[in-house]
């Protein structure tokens, strides 16, 4: 079974600061997803990374994928309060099954 | 409007009750999923349906029984649940297996 680990699990950061969330996975995959979940809400798709070296950016968030290292990062630039949420990575295995990380709960402090 | 609608949003039931969770998607997708989200644990995939056929059952206890009458509707029938089954149950859909998934807001289930 594919294992997906995220760290940190909890992140409290000040507005304007930069930080990176890490997602490691245990077996070969070349498709990785990042989701955002607000309290009481559904998961919202942020990025789909489809190949080694893929980089996607949307606003203050940038995601990258290194399939050789089995690592994806979600970088936050100049955080703002609206980014407070829980962020999940999900990895697709060769059987088209998704495996989710435990999530990173991000709180941005004014 | 997420395109994936789940009802009810909240459900409290006793261990001997029978209830059903409903999921409906308006996105024209062919695959639908049930996930369980418990505190401090990763989302757990429970069931996958593709073109109304069940393709995955991840060792889910038989007290959870899925039903997919068509590509737009998915049910999760519940009976004689245990307290550890209390969780948020999320439904998702996608164009096909491995495609980006769209999630509903979930049903918060509490077992007394």
Notes on the protein architecture:
The complex is a heterodimer of chains A (110) and B (112). In chain A, 0% of the residues lie in helices and 56% in strands. By secondary structure, chain A is mainly β. In chain A, the strands form 2 sheets. In chain A, strands 2, 4, 5, 9, 10 and 11 form a 6-stranded mixed beta sheet that branches. With 112 residues, chain B is mainly beta. Chain B has strands at 4-7, 10-13, 18-25, 31-37, 44-50, 53-57, 64-70, 73-79, 87-94, 102-103, 107-111. In chain B, strands 2, 4, 5, 6, 9, 10 and 11 form a 7-stranded mixed beta sheet that branches. Chain B has a 4-stranded antiparallel beta sheet with strand order 1-3-8-7, with no helix packed on it. In chain B, a hairpin with a 7-residue loop joins strand 9 (87-94) and strand 10 (102-103). The mean pLDDT of chain B is 91.
Taken from the alpha-carbon principal axes, the silhouette of chain B is globular
Radius of gyration of chain B, CA atoms, in whole angstroms: 13 Å
Share of helix of chain A, binned: under 10%
Terminal Cα span of chain A:
40 Å
Order of helices and strands of chain B: EEEEEEEEEEE
Mean pLDDT of chain B: 91
Into which percentage range does the β-strand content of chain B fall? over 45%
Distance between the termini of chain B: 31 Å
Sum up the structure in keywords.
heterodimer; A: 110 residues; mainly beta; six-stranded mixed beta sheet; five-stranded antiparallel beta sheet; globular; B: 112 residues; four-stranded antiparallel beta sheet
Write the layout of secondary structure elements.
The complex is a heterodimer of chains A (110) and B (112).
Chain A: E1 4-7, E2 10-14, E3 19-25, E4 32-37, E5 43-49, E6 55-58, E7 61-66, E8 71-76, E9 85-92, E10 98-100, E11 104-109
Chain B: E1 4-7, E2 10-13, E3 18-25, E4 31-37, E5 44-50, E6 53-57, E7 64-70, E8 73-79, E9 87-94, E10 102-103, E11 107-111
Parallel strand pairs in B: 2-11
Antiparallel strand pairs in B: 1-3, 3-8, 4-5, 4-9, 5-6, 7-8, 9-10, 9-11
């Amino acid at each position: 079974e594919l294992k997906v680990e995220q760290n940190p699990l909890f992140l409290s950061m000040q507005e304007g600061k930069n930080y990176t969330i890490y997602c490691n996975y245990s077996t070969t995959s070349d498709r990785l997803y990042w989701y955002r979940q607000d309290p009481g809400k559904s998961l919202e798709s942020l990025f789909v990374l489809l190949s080694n070296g893929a980089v996607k950016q949307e606003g203050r968030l940038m995601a990258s994928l290194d399939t050789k290292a089995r690592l994806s990062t979600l970088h936050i630039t100049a955080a703002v309060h609206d980014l407070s949420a829980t962020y999940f990575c999900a990895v697709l295995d060769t059987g088209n099954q998704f495996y989710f990380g435990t999530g990173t709960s991000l709180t941005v402090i004014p | 409007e997420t395109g994936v609608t789940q009802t009810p949003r909240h459900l409290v039931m006793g261990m001997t009750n029978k209830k059903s969770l409903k999921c409906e998607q308006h996105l024209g997708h062919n695959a639908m999923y049930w996930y369980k989200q418990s505190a401090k644990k990763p989302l757990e995939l429970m069931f996958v349906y593709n073109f109304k056929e069940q393709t995955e059952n991840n060792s889910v206890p038989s007290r959870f029984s899925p039903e997919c009458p068509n590509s737009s509707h998915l049910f999760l029938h519940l009976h004689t649940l245990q307290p550890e089954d209390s969780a948020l149950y999320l439904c998702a859909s996608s164009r096909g297996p491995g495609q980006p998934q769209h999630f509903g807001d979930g049903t918060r289930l509490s077992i007394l």
